[in-house]
Write a structure and sequence with these properties.
Elements: H1 2-31, H2 38-72, H3 83-112, H4 122-158, H5 161-166, H6 184-204, E1 210-213, E2 220-223, H7 231-261, H8 268-297, H9 310-329, H10 331-338, H11 340-354, H12 368-448
Antiparallel strand pairs: 1-2
Helix pairs in contact: 2-3, 2-9, 2-11, 3-4, 4-6, 4-7, 4-8, 6-7, 7-8, 8-9, 8-10, 10-11
Length: 449
């Protein structure tokens, strides 16, 4: 009886504990809800899902098409031979990394309307939230730094004296540039990742901020309490300053070149590179427009409560965040619109991928109709082979008999002709020998008389 009482009390305590735990989780989840109205939350889910699909397809296509065309059709696409093409590939890699880690997390947060890692428990959920936030912000900072590196690379190509004499800046990598040459550009990419991690290192190690659940659309992100970290904003503003200065120099140089081109003939390859530079300038302008509003309104680095009320602040944060997310998902669309050569590179890659092979199809599947078709083709091939072989054998026999008959007739004709000739010669010789003797006899008889 005591055992039964103990079991009943244990089961009652377990049920009470489970109820308290579930009630605690529900209360915590209610506290961590985004508090977004359905009219705002569902359009955000649809918008991010569309950007996720378009961004993954576009960036994967860029990472496959540009190296393929560069390697196979290098002479036709000189703009892809420069170091800027490698940096564009790195930019697409950063975008794909942000989309894969960030967009999936944002969609998950909006669907569950709260912390998606809460059911995992305190240690595991917080760690996974920390990793997702660090990786996403690291990819974002590397993306910003890559834009600055592209601006410096284009400026270096445009101002290179050897490239101006050759009239083809696309082959600047052959001029032994230690920074933006064939090997130097990969060290630049390595430096980008080191520098990007350094800009967020104070938040990563908990010196100025903490990566945890933020109860916003960004889900797991950095939060600031007593300190404010300006590492991210310094990286953003520093790269925007580099972009502004370098492209100002490039635009001034392009203006001078266009004036000179009115009186002199311009190399068509040089024109292609000029159009490529204009595409990169458009890309930089788009990045600037997308980044600046989100950095001041959506990332929580500045306190906007004294200036804007909560409702308007939420609306501005939503609009600026959507504009910022477009930067990662629509890059390749900008390439296609502003660059004829990159558009041609995409088309060339797709034509080579989807063109029909000229070799004979191999029907080696496991279906019964494929086996029947393969058996029918084998029987047909064997019949055609036997027919051809029999026809060739008959032709050979006919030719052999014809040649043998012709040779026999020729031999008989030659033998008859030779025998007839010999008979005639013998008769002629006999008649010739007989005629002189008759004449001599007549002379002798006449002499005797």
């Amino acid at each position: 009886m005591e055992f039964e009482n103990i079991s009943l009390s244990d089961s009652t305590s377990n049920i009470t504990t489970c109820e308290v735990t579930s009630q605690f989780i529900s209360e915590v989840h209610a506290q961590q809800s985004l508090c977004l109205p359905p009219l705002l939350r569902f359009p955000l889910i649809a918008f991010l899902s569309l950007l996720l699909v378009v961004g993954v397809v576009g960036n994967v296509l860029t990472l496959l098409a540009l190296p393929y065309v560069r390697r196979k059709y290098g002479a036709q696409f000189s703009v892809l031979q420069s170091s800027t093409a490698i940096l564009l590939l790195h930019l697409s890699f950063c975008d794909l990394m942000y989309i894969s880690v960030g967009f999936t997390h944002f969609i998950h947060v909006l669907i569950v309307d709260g912390d998606p890692f809460l059911p995992l428990g305190t240690p595991h959920g917080e760690r996974l939230c920390y990793v997702v936030a660090v990786v996403r912000n690291w990819a974002a900072e590397a993306d910003f730094a890559t834009m600055g590196a592209i601006a410096l690379c284009v400026c270096r190509h445009k101002m290179c004296s050897e490239c101006r004499l050759a009239g083809n800046p696309s082959y600047h990598s052959k001029h032994n540039d230690p920074v933006f040459g064939n090997r130097g550009v990969y060290f630049v990419i390595l430096f980008i990742w080191i520098w990007s991690f350094a800009t967020i290192s104070c938040d990563v190690f908990g010196i100025t901020g903490v990566y945890k659940w933020t109860n916003t659309m960004y889900g797991c992100d950095v939060t600031y309490t007593d300190h404010t970290s300006y590492g991210m904003i310094v990286n953003i503003l520093g790269n925007l300053l580099v972009i502004l200065v370098t492209y100002s120099i490039i635009i001034r140089r392009l203006t001078v070149d266009e004036r000179e081109a009115r009186t002199t003939m311009t190399n068509p390859i040089h024109n292609q590179f000029t159009k490529h530079i204009k595409m990169l300038i458009s890309l930089s302008i788009a990045y600037t427009v997308c980044i600046l509003p989100a950095s001041f309104l959506s990332w929580g680095m500045f306190d906007l409560n004294p200036l804007i009320n909560q409702e308007h602040q939420r609306m501005l944060q939503t609009i600026s965040s959507c504009l910022y997310w477009c930067m990662y998902g629509l890059n390749f669309v900008l390439y296609i619109i502003t660059s004829e050569r990159l558009k041609a590179a995409y088309c060339t890659f797709l034509k080579d991928v989807f063109k029909k092979p000229k070799i004979e199809e191999d029907y080696t599947t496991s279906t019964w109709w494929s086996g029947l078709r393969q058996l029918s083709m084998s029987g047909h091939r064997q019949t055609v082979g036997n027919t051809n072989q029999l026809s060739m054998t008959r032709d050979r026999q006919t030719v052999g008999n014809t040649n043998q008959l012709s040779m026999t007739r020729d031999r008989q004709t030659v033998g008859n002709t030779t025998q007839l000739s010999m008979t005639r010669d013998r008769q002629t010789t006999r008649n010739t020998k007989k005629l002189p003797r008759t004449e001599d006899t007549q002379i002798m008889e006449t002499t005797k008389l």
